[in-house]
Amino acid sequence: MALRLAAVAEALTGVAQVIHGSSQAPWDLHFVQTGANLGFAGGNNVGLRYIRSMAQPDEAVFLLNNDTLLTEGAIDRMLARLCQGRTGMCGATVVYHHGQRRVQAYGGARFQPWLGRARHLGAHAAFDVPRDPASVEPQLDYVLGAALMIRGDCLNDVGLLDDRYFLYYEEIDWATRARRMGYDLGWAPDAVVFHKEGATIGSSSNGRKRSLLSEYHMVRSSLLFTRKFYPYYLPTVVAFILLKSLQMIFHNDLARAAVRTRALLGLSRAP
Predict the structure, then answer these.
(1) What is the tens place of the pLDDT at every residue in 167-198?
(2) What angle separates helix 234-250 from helix 254-264, to the nearest 10 degrees?
(3) HSE on the CB side for 101, CA within 13 Å?
(4) How far apart, in whole angstroms, are the C-alpha atoms of residue 141 and residue 127?
(5) pTM for the full model?
């Protein structure tokens, strides 16, 4: 099977360009320059539209962060799992790249809508501990966007990522729409992807290491997602946001608390 790749990145000019890879390369590689930083959803949507213009309707699409390393056979294993039943999206075993051989996520995460918070499945487990997909997959509420494969018919039915999210909650929005349309989420445990988490913008899962930009969008996207899918949980989500902000004030992390407050009030990140 021919491998077709599209790498999406911000351009130096305002005009989108397509640069075709060398004819001598073992794959069909395309560089798509967007002209601006469109965020995770917006940037990936550029690539998704471009791939869909060339691909067959039933071809799978693989989203892969630029701060990841694929292990041999990962794509084939994810594709094999994606072909089973009504699986619409499939994740990999995502492992932190920093050398401790610790798991970031078994495929994705469990989401708590009453708090607007997610917990990665298998987080910080030893890399070599075997896990049964049958015990993990029923807990999957979304697939981690760092390494996400989506079936062609699922993409056609669900549509593109919601680009109102600049950062965070795009994957769970996508997965929620897919699940409500009858698609399942899968995990290929032997497909291993190493992730240099947050290397570009400081989007670490460790709150104290998260950049202010990431902090702002974490709150903003949480509210957007809750209003869209779980409006009846909005009071508890807001209360949880306020509680976390008060904890930051107590720990003298005033800049972070201020950014969260601006997001909660619907203000821009910078005064």
Answers:
(1) 999 999 999 999 999 999 999 999 999 998 75
(2) 160
(3) 4
(4) 22
(5) 0.87
